[in-house]
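Per reviewer request, we include the raw input and output of the structure prediction for the construct analysed in the revised manuscript.
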Amino acid sequence: MVPHLITALTGPLLDLEKKILDATPTIERWFRLEWQDHTPPFYCSVDLRNSGFKLAPVDTNLFPGGFNNLSNEMLPLAVQAAMASIEKICPEARNLLLIPERHTRNTFYLQNVARLAVILRQTGLNVRLGSLSEEITKPTTIELPDGQRLVLEPLSRIGLKGRRLGLKDFDPCAILLNNDLSAGVPAILKNLHEQYVLPPLHAGWSTRRKSNHFACYDDVIKKFSKILDIDPWILNPYFATVKDVDFNARVGEEELQETAAGLLKKVAKKYKQMGIKEKPYLVVKPDAGTYGMGIMTIHDASELKDLNRRERNKMSVIKEGLEVAHVIIQEGVHTLEKINEAVAEPVVYMIDRYVVGGFYRVHTGRGPNESLNAPGMHFVPLAFEQNAIPDITAKPGSTIPNRFYIYGVVARLALLAASIELERTDPHIE
């Protein structure tokens, strides 16, 4: 199904589409050379926002949880990509341990786990699920609404001196985390012997910072924009960080306002330069964390001054009850794409260095300058599989495959930034 899209490619993005399509051989060669120097994460999803004058990633997730939202037609590509990754990491791999999030009652999330297991089994791996949840003390079968079933098993240290991680009668070569480690790295995952952990432990939100990622993305875009001779801002949201914030105690409030005011001024200046009539806005969110929690949209720095108790509570605590101490303030990117009049943003999924599909996150109750990652959202698969080869002869902005190709290019730029980010933050590299 091709989503009924209300077109959102105007001025700068029409020019961008043409430049990217014309430079496709150069771009793909550039990516190929970059992947010789950097190792992509095992998988990744990127939230994009398309304003018509700007197309930029606003979040990059290294523990993607929406594989069940990809179209069935894309599954063979996902299998091939996973196979390529596993052959590179551990060609003789036989057993893989998949560790999901703790919440076993979210059936939508568990359908994602089931889809992941299907993809991985097709690569020639025996896949079993090990749970970090204290509630799972024995093999536990969970029935899913679509008729599938999952068996969650308790993790245990196995082998000589308990140096490996596995299950009863199951010694895996590799461990795939679909748990973002927001609550920290459990002891059971530490100091493993001769086992690959994907993604690495420092990719978890207990140590990862969005500001590190976007700093790396800055560097990637500077290089990429020179290839195309474009303004890097078209693909890159401005951002700033504020540390040691306590919303409830009102600590760091003044610095937060000053930083926001400076960033808004910077964005407004750029809008004026580009002839953009939209009103600039900022997104304030934790520098670590996911699930769309602790996010606030502001159009003026003064909005941060008089937060009520409910707003302070919302901003101060995120997933796993973790308190927010460091904040990233990001240039807001309007989303002008709509599906059947509902605001939509594309989310692109990758395994290894390959785009394997994606979907539109759609929300009927949210506006073009609000986060769509909120209760009430639904998903429409991106139709990558339908005539997915770009048409370089087409008029800019007229074909869906051309737009999807651009999505894939920008998502891979964020993927490359993530690989550089993991290299720079690796605790084992001096």
